[in-house]
Amino acid sequence: MPSPRRATLATVAASAGVSVATVSKVLNGRSDVAPATRSLVQSLLVQHDYVASAPRRGESAGQDTVEVQLDKELNAYSTEILQGAVEAGADVGVGVVVSVRQRAERPGAWARDLADAGRRALIAVTSELTTRHLSALSRARLPLVMIDPLNLPRARVTSIGSTNFAGGLAATQHLLSLGHRRIAYIGGHATAACHQARMHGYRAAMEAEGAVVLPHYVQTGHFKYHDGVVGGATLLDLPEPPTAIFAGNDETALGIIEAARARGLRIPDDLSIVGFDDTQIAPMASPPLTTIRQPLREMGAVALRTGLRLAAGEKIDSHHVELATSLVVRRSTAVAR
């Protein structure tokens, strides 16, 4: 599908009935423009989704930058990704700017601000973008790379992830190998691709072993500590509680540990827990958390390098890259009693 035509200064000038020079003065904040004319031009710039051309490599005295944009505050997961992106940027002399996306922003203005700031590419971490956002970025000629997107619009989007299905499979197989059969799963957003893949990996392992997956043993959440506390409490208060729980991420796993402690249960004697991510908090948990390692720093580095390749007009081998996960066994799992 051809990219939408990008509005030019001439387009805006023709709509306003003024010269291109006048539009340029408004863009540059010059004072020698009548207030009424300035207001008209500014409104038409927004209406046409005008985006100033980003400075090309070598045209600006400042350092090239890539923006890493989060939907929420920094946490252990996003900090690891950011570290990888920063290190990869330092290797090639590119700076990394971090921001939190404001959901109330209009897509056109959002993309225009990024382009006006001279960003070479945008890396969106666990974000939910619509086709309007993608169209706005296309008009701004700003490459996008998504990491663990919460949704995948129909348009082809470049994304970086990990082998989430294989990770969910390995986590559950580990618990099954310890003799557990009543195994529950607490995941993330119901529509998130990573949650879906981890859940299907869990189900596949259970079905292959002939273990029953009870409907109330599968829960969704937001990959937050609170989800583990609340979801863990719900599961552990059942007449027939699980003997093991696979958590969709490390933060949720720590919440489950707290819910178990509040009920006088010991980890792993009374309940085994496996997390996902292997962030900094996993080895610091009490007991240290058995988890699925996601190469988060490498994901950040690959995303940054991919964004720069797209910005340079290079072709990439695949629009979706999955990096391998692996099981890290610590002390939060034990043989079922």
From TrEMBL:
Organism: Acrocarpospora pleiomorpha
SUPFAM superfamilies cross-referenced by the UniProt entry: lambda repressor-like DNA-binding domains, Periplasmic binding protein-like I
Domain HTH lacI-type: 7-61
UniProt-recorded name of the protein: Transcriptional regulator
A GO MF term: DNA-binding transcription factor activity
PROSITE patterns for this protein: HTH_LACI_2
Domain of life: Bacteria
InterPro entries registered for this protein in UniProt: HTH_LacI, LacI/GalR-like_sensor, Lambda_DNA-bd_dom_sf, Peripla_BP_I
Keywords: DNA-binding, Transcription, Transcription regulation
